[in-house]
Amino acid sequence: MSTSPRRWAVTGLAAVSLLGTAGCAASSPAPAGGSGITGPYADGTYTQSGSYQTPGGEETINVTLTVESDVVTDAVAEPMPSNPTTELYQGKFSSGIKEQIVGRNLDELDVTKVSGSSLTSSGFRSAVDQIKAEAVQ
Question: Could you count the other beta carbons within 10 Å of the beta carbon of residue 97?
């Protein structure tokens, strides 16, 4: 009984696919945010600025977080717009961020969009990474 070249090709591709996924096994989850820094964190109030890119250029937002036992107990995002469009989106972001993060562990913050503002969250995450670096024990 002979095996067709097509069958050999399909079998070979299947084997290569399985071998290729062997290195993709699940690992422990990385902390939210991009810093890789994890707690414990010193209790306190921390303020940092985060920059982000918009179609109109670079923008910045100030973020103040109060942390107690690694949990965010208060949050303020201070808009620092350079134009009316940024003012609109930073204002929306600032008005909605507190309800999304207060009561959550600092390492579990994963903000991507608040009140329709998605670009501002990038600046927020940058500021949070800086706060984590400052607060880590």
Answer: 22
CATH of 1-137, one of 3.30.70, 3.40.50, 1.10.1760, 3.90.1010: 3.90.1010
- Structure tokens that stand for 76 in this block: 């303020």
Is the pTM here over 0.85, yes or no? no
- 22 falls in which pLDDT band (50, 70, 90)? very low
Cβ proximity of 108 and 128 under 8 Å: no
Residue 16: the pLDDT is: 38
The whole-number pLDDT of residue 127 equals 97
Give the separation between CA 117 and CA 91, rounded to whole angstroms. 9
Give residues with Cβ within 8 angstroms of 60, minimum separation 6. 49, 50, 51, 52, 80, 123
Burial environment of residue 33 by CB neighbours within 10 A (0 to 12, 13 to 18, 19 or more): buried
64: exposed, middle or buried (Cβ count in 10 Å: 0-12, 13-18, 19+): middle
Domain assignments of the chain as residue spans, ordered by start:
1-137
Residue pLDDT, tens place only, 107-130: 999 888 888 788 999 999 999 999
